[in-house]
Amino acid sequence: MTDSAKAHDDFAVALGDAKSAEAAFLALYHLTQVLFGVRLFTVMTVDMEEGLARRAFTSDPESYPGSGTKPIERNSWFEIVHDRGEVFVANTLEDIAGVFADHELIGSLGCGSVMNLPVFDDGALLATVNLLDREGYFTPDRVQRILAELSAPSFQAVRIARDTAKPVQGEPT
Question: E strands, 59-141, where?
Answer without folding.
Answer: 69-71, 88-90, 113-121, 124-133
